[in-house]
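Subject: for your reference before the review

Hello V.,

The reviewers asked for a structural picture of the protein, and I figured it would be easier to keep everything in one thread rather than splitting it across files. Below is the amino acid sequence we used in the manuscript, unchanged from the supplementary table.
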Amino acid sequence: MDKILDSLLSLSSKPLQDEAYDRQMSSLVQALNKIGAANMITTPGGPSLLEVLDPTEQSVGYLYILVANIRLIGIDHGDIWKRTVLFLESYDSRQISYALDQFKALVGEIVRFTSEIDKPLLIVRPLKKAILRSAKPTRFSFLHTCFVQKCLEARCYRDACTILDMDVTEFPSRKEAKDIGYQDVVSYFLYGGMIYIGLKNWRRAMDYLTYAVAYPGNACSSIQLEAYKKYLLVGLLLEGKTVNIPPGTSSNAVRAYRALVKPYESFTAAFNAGDAEGLRQQTITCMPIFVDDGNAGLATQCLDAFRRFQIAGLTHTYVTLSVKEIARRNLELLGRGGGEDETERYVLGMIERDEIRASLSHESPSLQNSGCVIHFHDNPQSEKRNLRGLEEQIMRTVAITNQAKTLEKKLGLSKEYISYLNKLGKSGSAGGAGGGNLADPDSMDTGDMFDYLARSSTGYSFDDMVDEDIMHQDSFDDE
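And here is what came back from the structure prediction:
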């Protein structure tokens, strides 16, 4: 143990070249795997090894010793919990890449502990810091799904956005992450969509639910089915109409979606029809199903959105319209009354939120029962708001373009893609334009690259996903 301790302490010395560092870390991890947990807690006649090692400089040794302490004396003993949190916020990701099994064991222990004491909030910040400490926070890992699930349980939606706002741009191969499965990835997108629903960020919620619904496979799992139900309702809130199934969704999944969510499609069809009474009757029929699915809150917000979209649609037909006429249309579906006074307050709220461009005027302010008239204006949105939205879209487009260029270059240098091009060349199917210069990824044919992506596997197995419900939890209901 003394020799291993000396090796651990030497990790803080001058950095080694990649090959030498790889040999040093591999031999060190092999040695640590042979030591029993009881021998890792303290030095012979000395202090705890956790006091000797630094969690940043000697991360791999600190990790093994920390896991040994948790398994032998418990995570709630002494300062073990504080040291665990400190480690997750300061570890060296390069060292930990050689001991991922131990790292997953550590995370599993703290997840189990917080679940036992029913305090998911305790783990939210450490997991967020752990993801940000990783070499590539935008590369999907087992931490992502665990983190967003705990954020949902603790209702820490804004903390989750720190990670969710960073789009996942890379997934590990099957060899790199044997324990990451199809359900983990789809669950991450579902949970992310649910968090954005809690924040009423319908655009981002729609993005994440789209990823879950359209995730490649030969059928749809119960997780994807749950995502599709929310996808339809969020589509109403975002677009004011039924949204189509995302392009690229497998035909088997499309058939399953349409067969298993008929109440939701009936509800969205009634919303599309623009008939308040028809939607009211359909809501009475479907609401028990929404309650069972945990989507009653979303459906209720759709009823309020129906009224907003119907009033906003009047701007395309009328220049002026009395509040009395709007109230007569009986668009209020939430039991708030829907009389002239309530309708006037509702329209005023829409004007203040910049949902419509209009002004209100009374025919005779001196009379108590004076009628109110709405004057719709031509410009639906302010120029400042349009410019702000355009600027945000341009920035996002630039970021996505840079990500695509980086991934394309990385793929062009990968062994798998070069092997694919060599096979094309040998079979004579590459043609004159295919392949490109293997030494220069920028000169490679993009068409060949997308053809390779289409033929290659994602690295995950979909054969047994139809009836599985791994990591499935009760739906989030935003009342």
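For the response letter, the relevant points are probably these. The CA atoms of residues 193 and 205 lie 4 Å apart. Strands lie at 320-322, 358-362, 372-376.

Happy to draft the paragraph if you're swamped.

O.
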